[in-house]
Design goal:
The protein is α/β, with parallel strands linked by helices. The protein is built from 7 helices and 7 strands; from the N terminus they run ααβββββαβααβαα. 41% of the residues lie in helices and 17% in strands.
Length: 245
């Protein structure tokens, strides 16, 4: 079944530019108002940074045959039932004729601190997916095919995210692939394993430096975890739903 991904590379570059531009605009606004948060937090708390990627979701839903689907991005409409907890608020939810087509998470991380945030993001991603799939198994979403469950991380491409990291694990040895791995490599491993363990339909790592505010440039570390693979899988699931008639 063919899928449609019109102007995909152009749209991703625009989303990257919007990410950095929205961060800078939020930081400037808080500074001017005298309510600036500490450090990089000023660029995060205002939200909207990932809106360019949400626009790609909307475009692919329409392009692949579901113009009437509900692409939910408003927080009050993003809540899905869980199994180990009552509810979870996702970043994007796609619903068509009462069926859950997709549940998506779009995350980002910039320096200077990567360590604690990486562990927190990994724990959140693993727990969120496991909770959803058990809820799905137990009938929380009715009689419908498996949804597309996606997780994307946009990571600042810089020396600290690319540099080897030392770990202290005195009681038992680390898996060898983690020894000296940078945070970008660790996120790439995380994405691969989230998919291999069938926690997510697709998981992507997108790297971009702060110069992306002008150029929109980005890079991937592997085909399996590329942003194109991520959205191609999403588009295919939308096309399958559209083919149901």
């Amino acid at each position: 079944m063919p899928i449609e991904m019109p102007d995909f590379d152009v749209n991703v570059r625009e989303a990257v530019r919007a990410f950095w531009g929205n961060r800078e605009a939020a930081r400037q606004k808080q500074v001017e108002s005298g309510r600036a948060d500490q450090g990089e937090r000023a660029s995060v708390t205002a939200g909207k940074n990932m809106d360019g990627f949400l626009a790609i979701v909307r475009q692919l839903v329409v392009a692949n045959g579901l113009p009437d689907a509900q692409v939910q991005v408003s927080r009050k409409l993003l809540t899905l039932p869980g199994y180990f907890r009552p509810t979870k608020v996702w970043d994007v939810v796609v619903i068509h004729e009462g069926r859950l087509v997709a549940a998506l998470e779009f995350k980002s991380q910039v320096g200077p601190s990567f360590g604690n945030n990486f562990n927190n993001r990994a724990e959140e991603a693993i727990g969120t997916a496991h909770d959803l799939w058990v809820a799905f198994r137990e009938g929380a979403f009715g009689e419908s095919p498996s949804p597309f469950v996606g997780w994307m991380m946009m990571l600042e491409d810089c020396d600290k995210s690319r540099s080897p990291v030392k770990d202290n694990c005195p009681n038992f040895p680390l898996f060898p692939e983690f020894r000296g791995a940078s945070y970008s490599e660790r996120y790439n491993l995380l994405c691969k394993r989230l998919v291999k363990e069938q926690l997510y339909s697709a998981a992507a790592l997108l790297l971009s430096s702060r110069t992306g505010i002008e150029t929109g440039e980005y890079s991937d570390l592997s085909e399996m975890t590329s942003i194109r693979t991520f959205f191609a899988g999403f588009a295919a699931r939308v096309a399958v739903e559209a083919a149901r008639g």
